[in-house]
Amino acid sequence: MRIPLWIAWKELQGRKSRFILNISLVALAVGLCISMELISRSREQAVDSRINYMGPALRVVPEGVTEGMLTRYQMSGKKFQASFLSRIKRKTASTIYAIEGRLIFKIKYKEWPVALIGYDRKNIITPFKELKKLKSGEGAMGYELSKELKLKAGDTLRYGDTKIYIKTVLPTTGTNEDTALFVTLNSARDILNAGDVLNEIRIYPGTGVSTEKIAGEIAALFNSINVIKAPRNDITESGVETALSSYRLILYSFTSLVAILTLMIGSHINAVERKNELATLYAIGTTGSTVFLTLISRAFLVGVPGSLAGYLIGAVSALLFDFNSAAGLVWSWELLAVTAVVTVTATIVSTVPASIMAGFRNHVLYLQEDY
Amino acid sequence: MIQINSLTKCFESTDDDEIYALDDVNFSVDDGEFVSVTGPSGSGKSTLLFTIGGLMTPTEGEVILNDIDIYELTAAERARLRREKIGFIFQTFNLVPYLDCIENTALPAIMSGHSQKDAFSNAEKILTGLALGHRLHHRPMTISVGERQRVAIARSLINGPEVILADEPTGNLDPETAMGVMDLFKEINSEGQTIIMVTHDHNLAKQGKRMIRLQEGEIAVDNKIAGGVQ
Question: How many whole angstroms separate alpha carbon A368 and alpha carbon A362?
Fold first, then answer.
């Protein structure tokens, strides 16, 4: 690849204006997608924050557990089977934004009652990313509880034979969750030596869905439960988010298609325009494969800076659109890496037909043409 | 030594007729010869040159270079042979427009795996020897046509080829520059370099040691030239 890359690099150096135009095309397409992605993410984050702030509209708990008891984590010994959550999900699938199950109980640690919340990492609605990453045997401690127990991140809480490594102390939320210790659902079940059980199901209804209606449906489904309704509006803007997600997918597809078609036309023109030069390379000792790889290398050299410049353009435009929301999102290595890989791949793929044509045509026909 | 045996190249025309660009051509070229191939347009001169150079597979016959039938080789092996054993010179110079003179000259050496440092050093020596030392970092479009052809000659020499194949090398040059290029060819040939040059110009053809005249794809005349380059 050394020689194709060298030739491609020299060609791009020698034709700077064309190089810049090619990069600009890639960068604009990428920039459009990135700005859309970042703005969408910031909107989603805003919706999530609002939901986090409001909490779930409905909480399903075992019969006898009141809202006050739930706030103090004084759960009765009753529990639901986990299949209970699946049944609610099936019944209310089209009307809910999210649903999550928890197993809440208390343990004694050095004579202090400590509330443990076993939660489902995949489905938890939380502003804390740490909770999504917690592993079995690890815990995330509420701010107030940490102060009371004088435990900090890195310490270990021992309860009988159980050890819970305090992975992190969560920032204060100003709610009762500041006084709890979060562990994964599996860890909680292991500590309690319980099977596949839950004792709180948190339900977040979708846009415009009546909480009363869902509460009625759930109450009709099961006996021995209590459905607690939170005093909040029935709006989570999931409809807005869904529309945004669908729209951005269409936009990405359309932008990518236009960019790929333009690159295909550009690479075809490039291959035709350079037929004498490529024939010369062939005559003086390259193979058709090397000519092919030279054009592919050119696409690579356009794709890499194009994707980076595009990311920059997208990030800047997202910041200009909504600085406060986008500021925490623009520097994402994951998004940058995905952008670079997808862009370079698309740039190369769009060049393949012209490169095959240029690499494996009858070069002798073009050796005697002037340029 | 190059041996051409029963070389035939046939093209199909649009009305399914077969056109014989070369028809059972036989000859051999000894090391150090300067052969001019001449003939009218369409007589098969360039086809012969490209076939000898491994660029155009013949319909029949063989091209043997140093006991190797070059069309028995794979495409990659033939590309290596073009790179290392054959130097091409074209009427339109065929320099790579975005490379400067030294890069154009060094290109076959770099493609052969030499380090850029060695390739550029060797290219500089050759270009300086051809009075182009002051044009090393000029691009082809910024130098005269005569200088471009000398760069093309330098490029053909960089890997020390067995044979130089020149296709109408003076076709785009004025008479004075053309004579300069011919003098250069004679000088290179006098150092033992084998040259096969295609030209339609009878006077230039007479500058070589031997002249082959093609007529409708067949050898009409194959003569040593009295008073040719010694």
Answer: 13
Residue of chain A whose alpha carbon sits nearest to that of B76: A287
Among the partner-chain residues B88, B91, B96, the one whose CB lies closest to the CB of A277 is B96
Beta strand A200-205 with A197-198 is unpaired
| C-beta separation of A332 from A315 below 8 A | no
Q: What are phi and psi of B174, to 5 degrees?
A: -70, 160
Q: Taking the alpha carbons of A168, A174, A179, A183 in that order, is the dihedral positive or negative?
A: negative
* Distance from the first to the final alpha carbon of chain A: 27
Tell me the mean pLDDT in the region A47-73: 79
For B156, how many CA atoms within 13 A lie in the half-sphere containing its CB? Answer: 30
Nearest by CB: A364 against B50, B92, B155 = B50
Whether the Cβ atoms of residue A47 and residue A241 lie closer than 8 Å to each other: yes
**Of B79, B105, B100, B164, which Cα lies nearest the Cα of A359?**
B79
**B226 CA: distance to closest CA in chain A (Å):** 32
User: Region B136-159: what's the mean pLDDT?
Assistant: 92
Do B19 and B13 touch, CB atoms closer than 8 A?
yes
Q: How far apart are CA A18 and CA B161, in angstroms?
A: 36
The residue to which tokens 């029963």 are assigned: B6
3-class secondary-structure state, position B137: coil
Nearest CA distance, B190 vs chain A (angstrom): 24
pLDDT, residue B230, reads 43
Contact A196, A189 (CB under 8 A): yes
Residue A54 has pLDDT above 80, yes or no: no
pLDDT band per the 50, 70, 90 thresholds, residue A236: very low
Q: Please say whether the beta carbons of A48 and A125 come within 8 A.
A: yes
Closest by CA to B183, choosing from B212, B152, B204, B200, is B204
**H or E element at residue A238:** helix A238-273
Beta-strand relationship, A200-205 and A58-62: antiparallel
Partners of B88 in the β-ladder: B165
Residues whose CB falls within 8 Å of the CB of residue A292, separated by 6 or more in sequence, listed in order: A355, A356, A358, A359, A360
Contact between residue B208 and residue B225 where contact means Cβ atoms under 8 Å apart: yes
| Residues listed for chain B | 230
CA dihedral sign, ordered B8, B14, B16, B17: negative
**Would the CB atoms of A368 and B56 count as touching at under 8 Å?**
no
Q: What is the DSSP letter of A79?
A: -
E strand segments, chain B: 2-12, 18-29, 34-38, 60-65, 68-69, 86-89, 163-167, 194-198, 210-215, 218-224
Helix (H, G, I), strand (E, B) or coil at B203: helix
The residue whose two tokens read 């489905």 is A123
Least confident span in A247-251, B13-17, B19-23, B128-132: B13-17
Q: Which residues of B touch A277 (CB under 8 A)?
A: 94, 96-97
Closest CA to A211 of A359, A50, A96: A96
Residue A368 has pLDDT above 60, yes or no: yes
ipTM: 0.90
Task: List the Cα angle B203/B209/B212 in 5-degree steps.
Answer: 70
Q: Choose the mutation target among A7, A11, A18, A280 for the interface with B, i.e. most B CBs under 10 Å.
A: A280
What's chain A's average pLDDT? Answer: 85
